[in-house]
Amino acid sequence: MKKVYVVAFVLVGIIALAMPASAQKNTRPEFLEPSFTLRSPSAGAKLAGGSRVTVQWDLIVDQTIIDNNWSEMELFLVDDNGLLLRITPQLSVTTKTFEWTVPSVNTRSAKIVLQVGIEGEGDFYELRQVGTFTIKSKVWTPAVIVNSLERSPKAGENMEITWTSEQIDRSKGFDVMISYDRGAHFYKAGTTTESRFSLPIEDDFAGAVTVMVIGRTADGTKVASLLTPNVTFRVKSKDQ
User: Fold this and answer.
1) Could you give the CA distance from residue 61 to residue 59 in angstroms, rounded to a whole number?
2) How far is residue 189 from each of residues 146, 195, 199, measured CA to CA in Å?
3) What is the value of pTM for the model shown?
4) Which residues are 144's β-sheet partners?
5) Backbone CA torsion sign across 146, 147, 150, 151
6) pLDDT score of 140
């Protein structure tokens, strides 16, 4: 009898191994794709430039992202006319609110975009608000705002810097200032009448670049972009 039991056990094992993977029980949990719902400002809202509002949202992400110490999240403001402004610094993926000073712009197609992911591990997820809202500004003050980069630069490539400006005389040109020690010392990388500048990055460069753009009003008054953590950009190595 014992021999019969042994033979039966062996046959069961052989049959299990021969079964296709789809027929075997899969104990690995499926990855949960991120889901983003903006609670405030809601679609159709009308905001005043310069006002303070509380941005509120719900974000559902996979537990592997929540548990990773390198996970990060940022919010951006975009519109149909090419506006791209960073709203927040890097946030924890568990953050649900942020106090925001609405920029002094005029747009009827404002939309908030959330990016979430793990630093150094592939592309970030980009999740967009459903619908749009309006920002109306009665009085604009002179300002220069450095935009977030469309992608992280790599050593050996050009770093494409862009900015938006209000009440700045473009004919007087913008001075693009660069710092490699997070704002302790700056040098002029160039001057342009455009709202963009291409900065070459050396092949062997490693570190971060802090950007400051200086514009001038009609009477010659200098207006510099704010030095916030948002304008310091990490440069990836060539093999990343």
Assistant:
1) 6
2) 15, 14, 8
3) 0.54
4) 165
5) positive
6) 65
